[in-house]
Structure formats: structure tokens, C-alpha cells
Design goal:
heterodimer; A: mainly alpha; 14 helices; B: mainly alpha; three-stranded antiparallel sheet; 11 helices
């Protein structure tokens, strides 16, 4: 995989290819220009992120994780086979393609330990006097002791997912929370609830929950458990607990101010991380745009191809001697047309959702950086206050002590999660693109077979005719 | 066995008859006795080589914004010696002149068409500019093809003006114009909208006209759709090129994935640029179809000429019939048809017997003349039909061969494109899997 002796950005010099190929035709130039801001209209995780709660909570959770790792009893329940079987047993209603099934297996960190399986399906429309909204059915199967039962079925709407994400960010400000699909897509959306949109969202929501389930820390979050198990009214009352909206808003303003300061004193490794995130965000957005564009072009190609075959059939009606050849060509074109359709659907299942999720992830990451910077800034401002002897020294020193712990925890949490995230990202990207390549290979192989068999039939016929003509 | 039309006025008999053949033997279509034998042996009567390099080769130079054609041709004498004569230059307009001449002097022949004057059925990346080098090259091939077609036609290849086109540097235009062919050209043919009500149309020609209309319509349709498909295909390939650029930039920040991304990006570039050659090849295929699009017009031209001939014949017969009737009336004194003479006679008095005799005599002379003319017109008509159908049969065979070959070559192109695609994506997949 990687080669030795490379250090992050220092490699950029050695790698530089000719950027911005001038010879490119306009079609592609349109894409290359400008830095596309993330096309998502979803929530930016950095907004309104409340200050983290008790400083001890993150360390507590980490301790729980450690405990579980050592607890053999829970592990023994599952062999690898069983876990896979479980997944299959509840998936009949899930319209999974083989490719996305593979993806599901892949985003497990440790397949042997997977003990929480979640599906999102059955979108239903609800109409009230005030609004119309969609709920999704969430089915959870688990063997964990802390769950009262082994199977749960609840209905949730997008708002609930937003709430969950907010709670997770609150509880773990420097962990990389999985992204939610966008609230809505601005361009090209005539109706908010068209089928494609709902299906895309459903898949993304499922991914979201499963990513949380696979995260070593987040999976044990209490709100997450409530989300998966509580009935609708129970969830409503649970939501009402916790800091109110107004207090959260007040914290936001302070948070923004603080995060500005945090950037200046960012440690080296986080500077690197930040640079990576910025660059990555840029690139993944471009890739998202390119991939969407390819899909669009393929669709338009498909539309034109649909008309191409029939023209040959039309022609064959006036040419007695060329009927076979013309009809043969027509049928080849039609089959290639079908192969194109398949390629398109493969692309939209394997590549597009993955790339898009990482677009959202990149925004998420920027939020995480901000929050880390905030925590750091809090410490820095107290330290500054101490040195300028503005307030009570003893109190400050105590606070600083706590904050230093907090900063250390936050940084460590982020560092660990960062490594994990990067690993997942590399795997996901790799498999998504490999799948895309596979789709294309398959497409061309199909088309090749079609045309080759046509050619064989024509040359065989030719030989037949030639031998008939001979006296 | 095809014969030149009997009318001595219409066929220039070249004095030293130099049959034109192709030294490489692909076109054994030397006229006359050898034709039948050659047909059986050679791979295809009138096989046309698509690219330059052999035979009446041509290369193009651009000179003073006019398209000049630079000709090489070799003339094979009857005794088998091959002589490479001087090369000369011809403009597109001279090709047009040649063709117009052939159309007039060989009305019963399906005269090979010229390539398009302006680029049509263009898809967006293909230039519609007549000075674009790709267009110029394709036109060169088209003109070469035209010459090969004429050279391999059993009758046309014998024509002296054609021979001079290939050999006479200066004054060729004057020579052509001296034949006075423009005067011979029936101006009625130019009136595209004119319809001639023919009482007894030849069914075969009517069907042929119908066929040529359909051929033209379906090939146009096909070329239009093909151009749109090409456009879209171009888009799909080229957008992938962007992956190349972005992967490369991305690889700069990736420790693990960097190499894989970089090399995968390279393959995306290869993929994106491969479409240019693919579509260029397809353009040549489109040109092959276009030739038959224009051939449809040539077919229709033969039908029209026949129509005109038939019309003239019927008019002549009608004239004759009415004169005969007039004569009869004068002779018998009965007036069955209205005539001005008859009216004036009624009004101003009978004419004298001498006058009547004179008139009858004139009429009888005219009738004689008319009968002669009708006879020869009939003969002409029958000859025309016979020769035309012979050439049409020849044309049909050529068309079936050529179109089948073209369609097969299209399949070959698709196969090659698929193989390239498999290659590139297999390479890319390998790079991705190494990331």
C-alpha cells in the first residue's frame, strides 16, 4: 500500500502532476473551475453546538468500552457466522444489492463483536393539520444485556435523527459523529417527498445509525439507546430533558468567539489534521460533483441509445438483403443499452452514496475541529486570565486544572477517532471505486460479447453465402 | 452486359481509348469484355478503398483558402504497362463540374455522389468549419472515393472527359464546357418541384423512387441519432478525465492511498482521451452511410429523367394523335374537334379545296415526322430503361455489399472500443484495490 519515506504534505512537491490541463474541452472545464462549497444543505455540525457537559463523561464511556472488551461473556454469544446470519435474517425487507451488503459488512470495525443490527425501512407519510412528514420504521436486533429486549421496532422522523445527532455532538464534541443526509436538496427538487429522495434518505439514515452502532464509544450512548427503543411519546418526554434551547443559543455565541482563539494555539498534529480536512473536503466535493455528472451523462447517453436501435429496425423494412444484418445491429445496440442501465444503477448504489456521505463527513470534521479548538480556547483564556491576575488565582488554578484534563481528553478522543475514521474512509473509498471499476468492466464485457456474437453470425453467414454462390 | 447509350451525340468516343484500372488489382473493373470475368474473380466489383495511399491517391494541400486536391493516378495501358503520370491539382468545384457533366451524358447511370460540401450531422465537438483539418481530410477521402467509384464503373470509366480530368492540367474546364453539356442539360430537371403527370408510369421506377425516398429518410434519421449518441458518449468519457486531475491532487495528502490514487487517475485520463480516436473512426463509418444518403439522390435523378422521357413520349404521342385526327377531319370534312381554323371557316366561309389540300399535305408531313420521332423516342425509351435497370441492378449489388461491410465494420469498431474499455478499467481496478 503506502510507500516509505513520505511525510504528509511534503509529498505534494514530488507528486505534482500538471494541474489544470488546458487542453481539456469545455465540458470538463466547467467542473474544474472553482471550489465547490459542499452542496449539502444539511446541518453544519458546528452550529449551535453546546458546550460539552460534565468533563468526566467521555472518560467514563471510554472506561466502559474497555470493560466490555475484556468481558468474554458478551463476545462468546456470537461467532462470526451467527452475526452474518443475523444480519441476513432481518434483511428481507431491506432492498439490498449485493454491493451494499458488502458495504455493510465492511463498515464493521470488528465483525466478531457486532451485536447491534439496525434497519431503516417502510417510509410512511403522515399528514396533520400543521404539517406533512415522513416516518421511518427502525428495527433493532441486539443481544446486549443493557437492552430490555432483543428486538425493537419504533417509528422515527427526520427531526428525531437531528435530535440524536445533536445529543451525540453534545456528549462527544471531539468525536467524529457520522453525518446525516441533508435536510433537503435545493436544486432540482420539485416535490420534497419524491420516491428517489425518500429512498436515498432512507439508505443514508440506515447508514447513519449503523455507523453509530459500530463506533466503539457512541454505540453505548444513552440517547442512542433511547432513540432505538423508546416509543414515540417516551421519546418526546425524554427530549424535553437537558439544557433548554435558549441556554444552548447563548452558549453558541460564546463558542464561536472562543473557537477563533483556539485556532491560533493549535498543536502541530491538529494543524496537520486541519490541513488534511480542508484539502480532503475540497477533493471529495469535486469527486462528488464529477460522479454526479457522470451519472447524468450516462443517463443522457442511455436516452439517446434507446432511439438508436429502432432506427435500424426501421431501415430493415426497406432492405430485403440487409434485414439480418440490420436487425442484428439493432439487437446489439438494445442489449448495450440495457447494460448501460445496469451500469448506471450500479454507480448510483455503490459509488454515489459513499462519496456523498464523505462530503457530509468532511463538513462534520470541520465542526469537530472547531469544537476541539473551542475547548482549547477555553483553557487558553483561563490561562491568560491567570497570568494577568485578573481574578481569584486559586479558583482559576483549579479551573485550569480541570480544563487541562478536558483538553487532554478531547484531544485524545479526537486522535483515536481520527485514526479510526481515516481507516474507514480509506476502506470505503477504495471499495466504492473498486466497485465502480468492476461495474464498468462488466458493462464492457457484456457489450463485447454481444457484438462479437453478432460478428460471428455475420461472418458465418457470409461464408455460407459464398459457398452457395460457388458452382 | 452494359452498353453505352447508342446516341452518338451523347457519348464522347475517346479517340485513344485508355481504360483506367487500378494497379493493385483491387479494381479489375476495366471496361468491356473483361468485366464479366473480373466480376467473378475480384473480391468486389467496385470495391472502394476507404483510406488514401493506394491507387489514384490524393493528398490535400490548403492553398489560398481553396481546397486543392493533389492527384496521383496511374494509367494502365492495354499492354499492361503501368505509367505514373504527372500529378495535378483540382478544386472541389471542378469535381462538381465533372459530375454534372456525367449526369447529363449518362442519364441512365446512377452517378456516384460527391462528398458533402458542408459538414452536416455534426455533433457538438465535431467542427462544422469547412476549413477544419479533420473535415478537410474526410472530404479528401470522399473525393478520392468518388474518383474510385467512377473509375471502377464499367461505363463511366471509359469517358474521355473523366480521363482528361485525371490527366489534363490546364484547360480542362474549357474542354468540358466545349462539349456544350450545359445546353443539353434539361432545365426541367432543375425544377425540383415540377411534377409531370405521366399517364402510364413505369411501376418499377415508381417503386425505385419510393425506395430512394425511404433510403434517404432513414439514413438521415440514423445519422442524426448517431450524432447525438456520439455527443453523449463523448461527454461520459471526458467527464472521467476530471477524476484524473482530482485523484492526482488528492494523492498528495494521502499516505496510504496516494500511489493507488495517482495511478488510477492516470488510467482515468487514458480512458477520457481514448474517445477521440473511437469517434473519429465512427465518423468514417458515418461517411460511408452518407455516401448512400447521397446515392439515394442519384437514384432519384435517374427516376426523374425516366419520368421526363416518359412524359415527352406521351406528349409526342398525344401530339401525333391530335394531328392525325385533324388530318382525318380535314380529309373527311367532319369536324369533331374544335379548332380555330374550323371556327374561322364557319365565320368567314369555307376554304378552297386547294387550301385544304395544302393543309392536309402539311399535316401529313408533320405526321410522318411525328411518327418517326415517336419511333425513335420509343426506342430511346426502351434503351434507357434497359440500360438504366442494368445499372440499377449493379448499383443494388454494390449497395448491399458496401452497407453490409459498413455495418460489420461498425461492429468491429464497437468491439475494439469495448476491449479498450475493459483494459483501462481493469488497470484502474487494480490501482484502486492497491490503495
Amino acid at each position: 500500500m503506502g510507500t516509505l519515506g513520505r511525510a504528509g504534505l511534503a509529498a505534494a512537491a514530488g507528486r505534482a502532476r500538471t494541474l489544470g490541463m488546458e487542453g481539456e474541452r469545455p465540458a470538463s472545464q466547467a467542473l474544474s473551475s472553482g471550489l465547490p462549497a459542499g452542496g449539502a444543505d444539511g446541518d453544519s455540525p458546528g452550529d449551535g453546538a453546546p458546550l460539552p457537559g460534565s468533563s468526566g463523561s467521555s472518560t467514563l464511556l471510554q472506561a466502559e468500552v474497555l470493560d466490555l472488551d475484556e468481558d468474554e461473556d458478551d463476545l462468546e454469544v456470537f461467532s462470526k457466522d451467527a452475526s452474518l446470519m443475523d444480519m441476513n435474517s432481518f434483511s428481507p425487507m431491506m432492498p439490498t444489492s449485493p454491493l451494499s451488503m458488502i458495504n455493510q459488512v465492511k463498515f464493521e470495525d470488528e465483525p466478531d463483536l457486532k451485536d447491534l443490527f439496525i434497519t431503516v425501512d417502510e417510509p410512511e407519510s403522515h399528514v396533520t393539520t400543521v404539517e406533512t412528514f415522513i416516518t421511518y420504521r427502525i428495527v433493532t436486533k441486539t443481544s446486549r444485556g443493557e437492552f430490555d429486549s432483543s428486538e425493537f421496532e419504533v417509528r422515527r422522523r427526520y427531526q428525531d435523527f437531528l435530535w440524536l445527532k445533536g445529543k451525540l455532538e453534545e456528549a462527544h464534541p471531539t468525536l467524529i459523529i457520522p453525518p446525516l443526509p441533508e435536510k433537503f436538496i435545493v436544486k432540482g427538487m420539485v416535490e420534497r417527498f419524491n420516491d428517489d429522495f425518500i429512498e436515498t434518505r432512507r439508505k443514508a439514515l440506515q447508514k447513519f445509525l449503523n455507523r453509530i452502532a459500530d463506533h466503539p464509544t457512541l454505540t453505548f450512548n444513552e440517547d442512542f439507546k433511547v432513540f432505538l427503543t423508546a416509543q414515540t411519546w417516551e421519546l418526546s418526554s425524554h427530549k424535553k430533558q437537558g439544557p433548554g434551547l435558549l441556554s444552548r443559543m447563548g452558549q453558541t455565541v460564546r463558542a464561536v468567539a472562543l473557537s477563533m482563539r483556539g485556532v491560533k494555539s493549535r498543536p502541530e498534529e491538529f494543524m496537520e489534521m486541519n490541513n488534511f480536512i480542508e484539502m480532503f473536503s475540497q477533493k471529495i466535493n469535486l469527486i462528488d460533483k464529477i460522479s454526479q455528472r457522470i451519472y447524468k451523462e450516462e443517463r443522457e447517453y442511455f436516452d439517446e441509445m434507446k432511439e438508436y436501435g429502432p432506427v435500424h429496425i426501421l431501415w430493415s423494412a426497406t432492405e430485403e438483403d440487409l434485414v439480418d444484418t440490420l436487425k442484428g445491429v439493432a439487437s446489439c445496440i438494445d442489449r448495450c443499452c440495457k447494460a448501460t442501465e445496469k451500469r448506471m444503477s450500479g454507480l448510483s448504489e455503490a459509488l454515489l452514496p459513499v462519496v456523498h456521505e464523505y462530503v457530509l463527513y468532511s463538513e462534520m470534521l470541520m465542526g469537530v475541529m472547531k469544537r476541539r479548538d473551542q475547548i482549547q480556547a477555553e483553557l487558553d483564556s483561563k490561562v491568560e486570565a491567570l497570568t494577568s491576575k485578573k481574578a481569584d488565582t486559586d479558583l482559576l488554578t483549579e479551573e485550569i486544572g480541570k480544563l487541562e484534563d478536558k483538553v487532554e481528553c478531547a484531544n485524545n478522543a479526537l486522535k483515536a477517532d481520527w485514526e479510526r475514521w481515516k481507516q474507514n474512509m480509506e476502506n470505503d473509498i477504495k471499495s466504492a471505486f473498486t466497485d465502480m471499476a468492476e461495474e464498468n468492466i462488466h458493462y464492457y464485457e457484456q457489450c463485447l460479447a454481444t457484438w462479437e456474437s453478432f460478428l460471428t453470425s455475420q461472418t458465418d453467414l457470409h461464408l455460407e453465402e459464398a459457398s452457395e454462390d460457388k458452382p | 452486359m452494359e452498353q453505352a447509350p447508342p446516341d452518338p451525340e451523347r457519348q464522347l468516343q475517346p479517340a485513344p481509348l485508355e481504360p483506367l484500372g487500378h494497379p493493385d488489382g483491387g479494381l479489375e473493373t476495366v471496361v468491356g469484355e473483361e468485366v464479366e470475368g473480373a466480376r467473378d474473380e475480384s473480391p468486389g466489383d467496385g470495391t472502394v478503398r476507404r483510406r488514401g495511399g493506394r491507387g489514384p491517391g490524393a493528398c490535400v494541400g490548403a492553398y489560398n483558402r481553396n481546397l486543392m486536391l493533389f492527384l496521383f493516378r496511374s494509367v494502365e495501358h492495354i499492354d499492361g504497362q503501368s505509367v505514373l503520370t504527372d500529378s495535378l491539382w483540382r478544386r472541389y468545384s471542378e469535381f462538381e463540374l465533372l459530375r454534372n457533366y456525367l449526369l447529363v451524358y449518362y442519364p441512365h447511370i446512377v452517378v456516384p455522389p460527391l462528398p458533402e460540401k458542408r459538414a452536416e450531422f455534426v455533433w457538438h465537438k465535431l467542427s462544422a468549419d469547412n476549413m477544419d483539418p479533420d473535415f478537410v481530410e474526410r472530404r479528401r477521402i470522399g473525393l478520392e472515393n468518388f474518383l474510385l467509384r467512377v473509375a471502377s464503373h464499367p461505363i463511366l470509366c471509359r469517358d474521355k472527359i473523366f480521363y482528361l480530368f485525371l490527366t489534363q492540367e490546364g484547360n480542362w474546364k474549357e474542354t468540358v464546357n466545349e462539349t456544350g453539356f450545359q445546353l443539353k442539360a434539361d432545365s426541367r430537371l432543375k425544377a425540383l418541384n415540377a411534377t409531370f403527370r405521366v399517364k402510364n408510369p413505369d411501376k418499377r421506377f415508381t417503386e425505385l423512387k419510393h425506395y430512394s425516398d425511404e433510403l434517404q429518410s432513414v439514413i438521415s434519421h440514423l445519422l442524426r441519432v448517431r450524432a447525438r449518441v456520439a455527443d453523449r458518449l463523448y461527454g461520459v468519457y471526458k467527464v472521467h478525465g476530471n477524476y484524473g486531475r482530482v485523484f492526482s491532487e488528492w494523492s498528495a495528502i494521502e499516505k496510504e492511498m496516494g500511489d493507488g490514487l495517482q495511478s488510477a487517475g492516470h488510467h482515468m485520463d487514458v480512458y477520457a482521451s481514448s474517445i477521440d480516436d473511437i469517434l473519429e473512426d465512427e465518423e468514417h463509418y458515418a461517411d460511408q452511410l452518407k455516401e448512400y444518403l447521397f446515392y439515394a439522390e442519384a437514384l432519384r435523378a435517374v427516376c426523374r429523367k425516366h419520368e421526363l422521357m416518359q412524359y415527352d413520349l406521351e406528349m409526342a404521342a398525344q401530339d401525333l394523335a391530335s394531328r392525325k385526327q385533324q388530318c382525318e377531319e380535314l380529309a373527311t370534312g367532319t369536324v369533331r374537334t374544335f379548332s380555330l381554323k374550323g371556327m374561322t371557316t364557319k365565320l368567314f366561309g369555307q376554304e378552297t379545296p386547294e387550301q385544304r389540300e395544302a393543309r392536309i399535305k402539311v399535316l401529313e408531313e408533320q405526321i410522318n415526322e411525328g411518327e418517326q420521332q415517336l419511333k425513335s423516342k420509343n426506342l430511346e425509351g426502351r434503351e434507357f430503361v434497359k440500360n438504366a435497370w442494368a445499372d440499377i441492378e449493379r448499383f443494388k449489388e454494390q449497395k448491399n455489399r458496401d452497407l453490409k461491410e459498413a455495418l460489420i465494420s461498425y461492429a468491429v469498431m464497437q468491439i475494439s472500443m469495448c476491449k479498450k474499455g475493459i483494459q483501462v478499467w481493469t488497470n484502474a481496478k487494480e490501482c484502486f484495490s492497491k490503495m
